[in-house]
Amino acid sequence: MRTSILKSLKPDIIVEMLEMAVTFENWKKVMETADILYQCVQRIYEERQYHKAMELPIPHVHLERPLVYYFGLSHLMCGMAHQNQGTYEQARECIYKYAELGWMEDLKEEDNQVVEEFRFLAKTNLYAVEILSGNIELVEEYVAFLQDNLEEILPGLNTVLQAALMYHLDVEDILHTFAEQIDEFGSYEDAENISYYYSYCYHLALYYREYDRLQDAVGLTLQAMQLADQSGNDGQFKKCTALFESLRESATTEQISQYRQMLMQSLDEYETDRHFIVKSVMDNPL
Known about the structure:
It comes from Paenibacillus polymyxa (Bacillus polymyxa). With 286 residues, the protein is mainly α. The chain is built from 14 helices and no strands.
């Protein structure tokens, strides 16, 4: 990308674009935007180093976070995209890049804290990639890691469930181990944890379907559907609809009624939005 274009870009705006792409699971867009973020902050870093070497005043660029954060985030997001597409070798390469960000010069205490945070994220994400790529002997070690790092339990159990589905693992004992923490998942209100909780419910529903616990699978599908609707994620909502239809014969009358109610509510919201858009166009013609 041209230097003139990179100079006009704001890293924090690019981060917002990244977050939006992740929300809609547009992994191609995530990788493209992560690369733009990397190029943008690389230009800022090189410019700073040049001015320092030439003993010139360092150009000021407004950033909400330390510069090293944006380097780490660009690699983290790219790795996330690869992981979600099943390209684990590429995901692993991205993880190695943000595992060690200490190569940057002039790191201050705040910067070093960010470096440590990304080093920790690299450790937990490398566990996930290794397990999902078939190294299931690491599951026991990973569970011990989760027990020592409770904030990682929700995304960690997502990894465990995905591996269980891919490699036909029985993970009931693991779920029982974290039963107390699982009971708290529904109390999360932030967008990131709601997204993780949706994924947990959806994958657990698939897992229970595999083991013929169909009533449990239906209940979890409805729960995932509610979370998808709450997040406004149409793609996730469609996946839940398809899963429910595959389980419809096992659903109770009450569950079918709840399902229909969610569909009707979604339709009502669509019609309301459509009416608002049409009215806005009619009231404000070009």
